[in-house]
Design a protein that fits this description.
By secondary structure, the chain is mainly β. The chain has one domain: Beta Barrel (Porin). It is 6% helix and 53% strand. The protein has two helices and 17 strands. The strands form two sheets. It has a 14-stranded antiparallel barrel with strand order 1-2-3-4-5-6-7-10-12-13-14-15-16-17. Strands 8-9 form a two-stranded antiparallel sheet. The longest helix has 14 residues.
Length: 321
């Protein structure tokens, strides 16, 4: 019972009625749309893979570390897309494994315009390994927690819409997990204060554009908004400059919470080859933990697995879409 009570307490703190996001965020969202919007599957017209690693709040022991990989491609016809995403997140003693399958269909059969509707199914494993716990002082021995771990499996469904126009503008709306899974009940000492830990819906809206401003130079603004009940409305505002379809660099500002915002982010993407590129992002923390954290780091890799007949080489505006 002690193991179960502790697990429920941690899950309730991490994923229930608290003022925080439950789903994991990435600064380079403009290159990593599939995990939060299933309608993106097949949108680029070629099979491609994305892998991303994030080390958040460097300097904190047990800080969030995440790895995510996704693949998506057209299936049988350009109007149908499929995708798969795998992710692993470690936060202290807690682990979060997730896998999802996505399907999309283009509702508009036009050369320069696309409106895709998408569905996704996901499986998520949440767990905690008590054997890795470290006490700052010699604790009273609790044999029920010695070398043990607890995990549970949850299924969910999600949906989204994704619109593009002339490879110059995109917009999307999605809810990756619709069903509110119940993680358990924490009765505590006072039955009147009992709460159920639930997986809340997260609503995402995104938009971006490619604006030519000179010979071989494009301005690429992007926006991602995130909303979950009982949490502050979160917004990522990004502006990138792309030069000769080779190097893209810019800044993002994550609003989040109150005061001066959550972070100011530096982003760089290098088109290393016609069919693959690498990205880097560094978040400068602006919130109250800035004196204790060295910021957050992200590394990104993306590759086309096949050249498109329409677009013989992978260009960043097309990549951006």
């Amino acid at each position: 019972m002690k193991k179960i009570a502790l697990l429920l307490l941690i899950l309730a703190a991490a994923a229930a009625n608290v003022y925080a996001q439950q789903e994991h965020q990435y600064t380079q969202f403009m290159y990593n749309k599939l995990p939060i919007n299933p309608a993106y599957a097949g949108a680029r017209g070629v099979p491609f893979v994305t892998a991303i690693y994030r080390n958040q709040w460097i300097g904190f022991e047990g800080s969030p570390k995440s790895v995510q990989a996704s693949f998506n491609a057209p299936f049988l016809t350009p109007r149908v897309g499929v995708g798969v995403t795998l992710s692993h997140v470690q936060i202290g003693l807690n682990t979060d494994f997730a896998a999802s399958l996505a399907y999309s269909y283009d509702l508009i059969d036009a050369d320069e315009m696309s409106l895709r509707a998408g569905l996704m199914g996901s499986i998520r494993s949440l767990g905690i390994d008590f054997s890795k716990a470290m006490a700052s002082e010699i604790p009273t021995v609790d044999n029920s927690l010695e070398n043990t771990s607890v995990s549970s499996l949850y299924a969910n469904v999600g949906a989204g819409l994704y619109y593009t126009y002339a490879d110059r503008f995109y917009a999307g709306f999605s809810v990756p997990r619709i069903y509110s899974n119940s993680f358990g009940r924490n009765d505590g000492l006072n039955p009147d204060s009992s709460e159920t830990a639930r997986e809340l819906q997260h609503f995402y809206a995104m938009a971006g554009a490619v604006i030519p401003i000179g010979e071989g130079i494009n301005l690429m603004p992007a926006l991602l908004t995130k909303y979950v009940k009982n949490a502050p409305f979160d917004v990522d505002v990004n502006i990138n400059l792309e030069i000769n379809e080779k190097v893209t660099a810019g800044l993002s500002y994550r609003v989040g919470g109150n005061g001066s915002g959550e972070s100011l982010d530096l982003l760089v993407f290098w088109q290393a080859h016609e069919q693959f590129g690498v990205g880097f992002a560094y978040d400068f923390t602006l919130s109250d933990i800035k004196d204790y954290s060295s910021g957050s780091v992200e590394l990104l890799f993306q590759a086309d697995l096949k050249r498109s007949g329409k677009n013989k080489k992978m260009s960043n505006p097309r990549f951006f879409m």
